[in-house]
Write a structure and sequence with these properties.
single chain, 387 residues, mainly alpha, 3-stranded mixed β-sheet, two-stranded antiparallel sheet, disordered N terminus
Length: 387
């Protein structure tokens, strides 16, 4: 800008052509600016190895576990992991180190981190009624991983700007690049901000995976209808599958896939499900929520500490609320009446409202994974029980 001003003064006051050195300096700076511009926004050229994808997924999973906590029940975790691995081993990427984590929150939700880490909430398990329904939900999330939907969304929507050097390194992505990607991936996942084509693909491939194992593919439709009923009074999409296509359209699409592909799986395995999952989902009005909204700024810390039950503590929390902006999508509690009117648009691919109990439900305090193990023979025996 200073050079341009000096050039105008020279021309207007002296009336002579600018000196070659002046033009050279200006053109040099213009070329530098053009070169710099050419180096940025190379996110669409990003090439990610399985190892880099896993590192990204671990960072995203750590954010989710820190925010929601992990349900410290080995039996439930092992059961969900067995169902998930039956499906994952039949997927297009069975070689991934698949992990299935139960998040300790009453909110009904599910999240897939890149690289093979699938999360489902305790609330979602309570809403689901049988193993076939669980396979539909897990199959959907598994497909987000196998089709690399999160990385695709970051690239398509240019959620991160990277230079040519950052996307082209032969030694894998640097930690700084992974951190940038993890922030964008977390916001995309927590907001369920996949596009329609990705969601349709996840439904289709997910029920196909379940059908291969013998599960009734239409069971996912039952979950969707239950979600629709649960959220009928919500002004904004809330929780699991929040930004996905309209429920009626998805149910019709699932029915078409079942018919066109002659998917004949019929097992629901309700009795085994009830043996392991002995709790029910809480009504939206009974779910404790954090303050603010989760994920609006893409932070990775708890949006607030658990509030005490006493009236005095609640009053204190309200006074402190202005200090607790930032962090994840944040939260405003919605329990009844006028609170449902508090809505806000999220600056991401999916519009999400404030006061969404399933999304903004409080989580547990323990972020540690639950270690479980089973042998290939045990997985095979489990699969035999799908009948």
């Amino acid at each position: 800008m200073k050079t341009t001003i000096a050039l105008v003064i020279t021309l207007s006051t002296i009336g002579a052509a600018p000196a070659p050195a002046q033009l050279g300096g200006l053109s040099g700076r213009l070329k530098q600016a053009q070169d710099a511009k050419a180096k940025v926004d190379k996110i669409t050229d990003l090439k990610m190895s399985d190892a880099d994808e896993r590192k990204l997924g671990e960072e995203v999973s750590a954010k989710l576990r820190q925010e929601f906590g992990v349900y410290q029940d080995k039996d439930v975790t092992r059961y969900v992991s067995l169902v998930g691995n039956v499906l994952a081993q039949a997927s297009s990427r069975p070689q991934l180190d698949w992990q299935f984590i139960v998040l300790d929150t009453d909110g009904v939700n599910a999240f897939a981190s890149p690289g093979g880490i699938v999360h489902i909430t305790r609330g979602a398990l309570g809403l689901i009624k049988n193993e076939a329904e669980l396979s539909g939900v897990l199959g959907h999330e598994i497909t987000h991983v196998t089709a690399k939907h999160t990385v695709r969304a970051i690239q398509k929507n240019k959620l991160v700007s990277l230079t040519a050097d950052e996307v082209g390194g032969s030694g894998g992505l640097t930690q700084s690049v992974l951190s940038k990607l993890a922030g964008a991936a977390y916001k995309n996942i927590i907001s369920n901000a996949f596009d329609r084509d990705d969601e349709v693909e996840a439904d289709k491939v997910g029920i196909e995976l379940g059908n291969k194992a013998g599960y009734a593919p239409a069971a996912l439709s039952d979950v969707l209808k239950r979600l629709e009923e649960r959220n009928k009074d919500q002004e904004q999409p809330n929780g699991m599958f929040a930004s996905h296509p309209l429920i009626a359209d998805r149910v019709a699409s699932i029915a078409k896939v079942v018919k066109d592909e002659k998917l004949a799986g019929s097992a629901t395995v309700a009795s085994r499900y009830k043996k392991h999952i002995t709790f029910e989902a809480k009504p939206l009005a009974d779910i404790p929520v954090i303050e603010g909204t989760r994920g609006l700024t893409g932070g990775d810390s708890k949006a607030s500490k658990d509030a005490k039950d006493s009236k005095d503590s609640k009053d204190k929390d309200k006074k402190e609320e202005p200090k607790k902006k930032g962090g994840l999508l944040g939260k405003v509690g919605l329990t009844s009446g006028s609170q449902a009117q508090n809505t806000q648009t999220v600056a991401s691919a999916g519009a999400r409202g404030l006061g969404q109990p399933d999304r903004d439900a409080k989580g547990g305090s323990n972020p540690n994974k639950v270690d479980i193990a089973f042998t290939p023979a045990e997985l095979a025996d489990f699969k035999k029980g799908i009948a």
